[in-house]
Amino acid sequence: MSIFDLFDRISSDTTKPNGKIEYVITGLGNPGLEYEGTRHNAGFCVLDMLAEQLGTKIDRLRFKGKTAEVTIEGVRCLLLKPTTYMNNSGESVVQALEFYKIDASKLIVVCDDISLDAGKLRIRRKGSHGGHNGLRSIVDLTGREDFQRIKIGVGKKPHPDYDLAKWVLGKFGKEDSEKMEESSKNACECIKLMVQDKTDEAMNKYNS
User: Fold this and answer.
1) What pTM, to 2 d.p., does this model score?
2) DSSP structural state of residue 95
3) Which residues are catalytic?
């Protein structure tokens, strides 16, 4: 391999970004093997898929979470998976935002949504926490609601009296797993648009 080939390889590596972090992209979930593949970990699944597409892993321990620095469509971003457990997600997010001096408007949160059918997406520029404890923690600790979010539908409870915790900590059946695979791919494409300030395009193309 010539020195020119080596330079081309280095310069084309999207996992070796240069410059200031411009976006924090966080996927919400719970750490630990027992929570892998559960409805509440839809955000983690999307970030893992995105990291795989970029040829990296989210494994550097920082900001009470696991992180990776990447370049997405020419924009330097931090991928963040809080390890605080869902209800305290804001602790991790705030540390990252403060460290990089990033405004909450440059935060993208990916999380599950039980009001949407499995596999559906809803992209929003801002909004309330809507009863989601991970979003509630971020809203409470940042004092802001004007951060972007991608909500991944995980399906409604089978009936109103069904225990909510049991539902969100349960795993998908085969049919819903296939839908979630497709929606996770679409969520990754949304992120690629949103970091280019093309949120309207993402909404028009992927909102269910």
Assistant:
1) 0.88
2) H
3) 40
